[in-house]
Amino acid sequence: MSGTHQYGRPRALTERRCAMSVVSELRRTSGGKSPKTPGSKRRSAAHRGDGRAALVFLAPWFVGLIVITAGPMIASGYLSFTDYSLLEPPSWIGLDNYTRMFDDPRLLNALQVTFTYVLVSVPLQLAAALALALLLDRGLRGLAIYRSVYYLPSLLGGSVAIALLWRQVFGADGLVNQFLAYFGIEGMGWVSHPDTALGTLMILNVWTFGAPMIIFLAGLRQIPRMYYEAAEIDGAGKVRRFRSVTMPLLTPIIFFNLVLQVINAFQTFTQAYVVSGGTGGPADSTMFYTLYLYQKGFASLDMGYASAMAWLLLAIVAGMTAVNFLASKYWVFYND
Amino acid sequence: MKSSTSRIRTARSTWWRTGAVLAAGALALSACSGDAGAGSSGSEDDGGETQAAEDDGPVEIRFAWWGSDTRHETTQQVIDLFEEKNPDITVVPDFTDWGGYWDKLATTVAGGDTPDVITQEERYLTDYAARGVLADLNEIGLDTSAIDEAVIESGTVADGLYGVATGVNAYSIVADPKAFEDAGVDMPDDTTWTWQDFVDVSNEISKATPDDTFGVQEFGGNEAGFSIFARQHGQSLYTPDGTLGYDDALLAEWYQTTVDLIDGGGEPDAARSVEIAEGGPEQSLIGTNKGAMGFWWSNQLGAISDAAGRDLELLRVPGESEFDRTGMYFKPAMYYSVAKDTEHPEAAAKFVDFLVNDPEAGALILSDRGLPSNTDVREAIAGDLSPVDQQVADFLKDLEDEIVDGPAVPPEGAADIPEISGRINTEVIFDRMSPQEAAEQFTSEANGAIGQ
């Protein structure tokens, strides 16, 4: 128990810190001396050299950004205004792809499926993550092991293997039905019924609560103990301490997790693809937005439309993130 | 990490350092992109360092196909044999399963990296040919003298031969005599049975067997079945003009058959059907000894028989003598096509020629890609066929006199039809659409897909 509060910062920040330390490292190697530089000729020559070295160090990242991110984005932006079958060169059709979206009931269905998935599974996932983090924060022995065990699904959750396993577990002769059979309940093919297939995918997402849990755990460690001690002296019980100390101080972490998981959930693809065998079925009930985009692009050879859909998705995710940030003013509490 | 000495040195050493870092960066980047060619073995850089268009020196061509592990092994043997006979030509295998094949092919075409020899399928051939991806096999000089005229016809799009069929298949019913026996139901006479007989027999078998055993596996989602049904009624799925050629009422009747089977217990409930359908031959009702009948392509008999571990029979589709005419037809199992932009048309043509016309290649491939379309090869391998393949050959031979004609080549955009058909059928079996609604929906979506 005594060592629990030695962690300096919540892990949420480690990514940023990691990135920052690289930057500061670079600054040290490149322009790090600049504030004190008197401006002698020789030194400024060396400066320019260091600047170049910095650029070179940055080059892999830069090349990555241009080749892997910016390039394809520009290309898909262009393609979204074209009729492009993949087999023939694209031809310009203006806004047709975007206007066609309004007459596409399957697109509407895909949006509905995706929004349902995000709105249901993300809160559940975060609740599970927080609950587990609170449990683990009580200074269990072998904490590292528990942490790893609960984190594991996060690593595996997006993989093909787990999606295949899921199909098995929730299949007509799967584990779930075998379990239900003990209680005399006759199960069904959960993944192959339109009413329940999406539910199994939501459960899969909730199950991968490990990543937000680790972040919550780090956030909990960051809350100064004195607040709890003070609250305790004031006679606050467990529930009250959680509501008045833990929750407010944890809101920035919750916010961070929320933003991240919402963005992730919107981009769900692998699970839906594998569990439905690539069809989004049964009867389009697991036709996620990204899956429909993929089908349009590669199966229907309509890459122009698929590109336009990709941009709509970007707009939706950006919009949701903006809403999150705006709403955060009303509930996120920064303790500075 | 950087020693302070470098700062004092001149720009020259900086440049040296810069170069070193750049090299390291390049290494790191190339390490990242190392697995670009997943799926295919061997090098992807076909044509990269080979001599231009002349086939004098050693050349490399890439051959793309889909299929099961057995097919991959057999095809590799064929390739080895070809390379032995043509030491100047290396054939790079490029295979995936059926699901990933078309995505991968479209992507490689878009990337300007089209495989030299491409395995094609009926519903995609027109799309690829019309968009200028495939070469006219007549132009590159493929010998088609020994190949069935009707088969050549099936690969012809707008006067060009864009694919040569590997062999023929028929969509038919696979039946398990043991399952009929267990249920105490007589095997039907497939030359006279009607669709109503078929529904009755299926329901009867389900009733007479344990709860997990059924008369027939769900089949409404494969448009080949409806194509036969429509032809029996003197209509068709597609017309030669590239439009849809049936009445919605007829399609609704087709869906109604499925509904009758579900209501009567002849086929499993919808959720189970969806699950079974994803499992392929191995997990089919017959394959797991839990059903008496199923609709399959005739060349799948081997795989299903293996899975079932029993002797199975091929039956004609119901209704062949019920209406105006017969509906069954021979479908080219798949096609070999050559890329229009191949750098080695001669080598590619030689390889396709080997695949279709060489008896030794035929002896390896046997009926894996349908019964060989080259009649000489078909005769040559007759003695080598396994009992199951022989069974298929006999069945197809019996059909020869009954089959009136082939259906029209699917129009451009038909590649979307399997997906639409499967999805709307799912709506029907889950009772989310009535047969009439489903028929209208299918027609509307199919028209959209083929641009009508």
Automatic annotation (TrEMBL), chain A:
PANTHER family per the UniProt record, alphabetical: ABC TRANSPORTER PERMEASE PROTEIN, ABC TRANSPORTER PERMEASE PROTEIN YESP-RELATED
Topology within the bilayer: Multi-pass membrane protein
Domain ABC transmembrane type-1 stretches: 111-324
Superkingdom field: Bacteria
Region feature Disordered, mapped onto this chain: 24-47
Pfam families (alphabetical): BPD_transp_1
Location(s) in or outside the cell: Cell membrane
Listed name of the protein: ABC transporter permease
